[in-house]
Write a structure and sequence with these properties.
The structure holds 2 protein chains of 2 kinds. By secondary structure, chain A is mainly beta. Chain A has strands at about 5, 10-15, 20-25, 30-35, 45-50, 55, 65-70, 75-80, 85-95, 105, 110-114. In chain A, strands 2, 4, 5, 6, 9, 10 and 11 form a 7-stranded mixed β-sheet that branches. In chain A, strands 1-3-8-7 form a 4-stranded antiparallel β-sheet, with no helix packed on it. Chain B contains no helices and 11 strands. Classes of the chains: A mainly beta, B mainly beta. At the A-B interface, β5, β9 and β10 of A face β4, β5 and β10 of B.
């Protein structure tokens, strides 16, 4: 248990569906991240939120839409995805400024787009 | 262009022996490095870190060595145990264009410890 919880753990969706991934952290951190892990690739940063403000959008297609309503919660809204978007989506949190500690990850959502 | 490289996709060692996992980086501005361990179907778990002001950090069976001049770090696990079998990711802390902080990861090395 890392203090970062992601739901659902597994998700299968069609290309016309709309779904959302949820992340919640109970560590008092003020930065939250979405990462994507595709097969045989390094973890890729998608978005960074610091103090509930998006500070990084790593050239992610608009079919991925993040939302950070407060410092403890982070969502990733998905719509009209493609099969190549199938991957493990990981949420992480950390203390942002003066950060000298690790980021902690959730267990991930395994997404399959059919 | 990959800034953090783990050139060995896999490593196999016998139980009780030393496991050495290697990582190279290209950006001399990186000043904080981490190792994460990942089991299948789980998120990465933080293992150990090192700041660039040090060249060694030890935590139980795990030791990380940093050679700044070579831009190289390594993770030593001794003695290795079957439960250590997992994928190990090397990561470096970087600053984003927005001024925030992020981790840049290598592709990982799959460690198998044989009983």
């Amino acid at each position: 248990e890392t203090g970062v919880t992601q739901t659902p753990r597994h998700l299968v969706m069609g290309m016309t569906n709309k779904k959302s991934l949820k992340c919640e952290q109970h560590l008092g951190h003020n930065a939250m991240y979405w990462y994507k892990q595709s097969a045989k690739k390094p973890l890729e940063l998608m978005f960074v939120y610091s103090l509930e403000e998006r500070v990084e959008n790593n050239s992610v297609p608009s079919r991925f839409s993040p939302e950070c309503p407060n410092s403890s919660h982070l969502f990733l809204h998905l719509h009209t995805l493609q099969p190549e978007d199938s991957a493990l989506y990981l949420c992480a949190s950390s203390q942002d400024h003066e950060w000298r500690g690790p980021a902690f990850f959730g267990q991930g959502t395994r997404l399959t787009v059919v | 262009d990959q800034q953090v490289k783990q050139n060995s996709p896999s490593l196999s060692v016998q139980e009780g022996r030393i496991s050495i996992l290697n990582c190279d980086y290209t950006n001399s501005m990186f000043d904080y490095f981490l190792w994460y361990k990942k089991y299948p179907a789980e998120g990465p778990t933080f293992l150990i870190s090192i700041s660039s002001i040090k060249d060694k950090n030890e935590d139980g069976r795990f030791t990380v060595f940093l050679n700044k001049s070579a831009k190289h770090l390594s993770l030593h696990i001794v003695p290795s145990q079957p439960g250590d079998s997992a994928v190990y990711f090397c990561a470096a802390k970087a600053i984003t264009q927005g001024g925030s902080e992020k981790l840049v990861f290598g592709k990982g090395t799959k460690l198998t410890v044989n009983p």
